[in-house]
């Protein structure tokens, strides 16, 4: 065990999510293109962080890091496609040792005066604490050679095709 290992540390939210979704079951088609990805919500920054939004002009997307504060309420769906040999760190399930969420979302509008950030596609519930916001930079944050296991590809293909047949 490393000598400088931290047992714990403190994260302080910079704001919170304002969304119509109060519970994860409120979201229709959670795993489809018409679920979270089509939804608009706001991030409300605390006043001391509002001006830190300056410079986000002309970014189309941002990365939002948040604390999944209600992860204990989540239950894995009965028909989930995860094979039994796949464990937690090979998934994006919200119940984690440190329930940190990450979403790349479309930046619709923001105000350094009010601290409001309007986004599209944030998969976080109302009042979710926001830990950080970073600009999405395609040259740094996207890897065209990235791959996923077969079971994820099948899951995504099944759900993508399902949305077009509704």
Describe this structure as you would to a colleague.
- The chain has three helices and six strands.
- It has a single domain (15-164), classed as YaeB-like (Elongation Factor Tu (Ef-tu), domain 3, Beta Barrel), CATH 2.40.30.
- The chain is globular.
- The model is unreliable at 162-166 (pLDDT under 50).
- With 166 residues, it is α+β, with helices and mostly antiparallel strands.
Mean pLDDT value: 82
CATH architecture, by name, is Beta Barrel
Tell me the distance between the termini: 53 Å
Helix content: 10-25%
Order of helices and strands: EEHEEEEHH
Compact overview of the structure:
With 166 residues, this protein is α+β, with helices and mostly antiparallel strands. The protein is built from three helices and six strands; from the N terminus they run ββαββββαα.
What structural keywords apply?
166 residues, alpha+beta, Elongation Factor Tu (Ef-tu), domain 3
């Amino acid at each position: 065990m490393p000598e400088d290992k931290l047992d714990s540390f403190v994260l302080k939210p910079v704001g919170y999510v304002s969304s119509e979704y109060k519970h994860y079951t409120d979201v229709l088609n959670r795993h489809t293109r018409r679920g979270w990805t089509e939804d608009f919500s706001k991030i409300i920054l605390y006043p001391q962080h509002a001006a830190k939004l300056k410079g986000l002009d002309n970014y189309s997307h941002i990365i939002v890091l948040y604390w999944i504060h209600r992860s204990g309420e989540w239950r894995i769906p009965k028909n989930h496609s995860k094979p039994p040999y796949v464990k937690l760190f090979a998934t994006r399930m919200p119940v984690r040792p440190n329930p940190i969420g990450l979403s790349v979302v479309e930046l619709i509008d923001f105000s350094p005066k009010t601290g409001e950030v309007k986004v599209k596609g944030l998969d976080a519930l109302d009042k979710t604490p926001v830990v950080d916001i970073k600009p999405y930079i395609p040259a740094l944050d996207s890897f065209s050679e990235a791959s996923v296991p077969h079971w994820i590809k099948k899951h995504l293909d099944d759900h993508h095709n399902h949305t077009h047949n509704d």
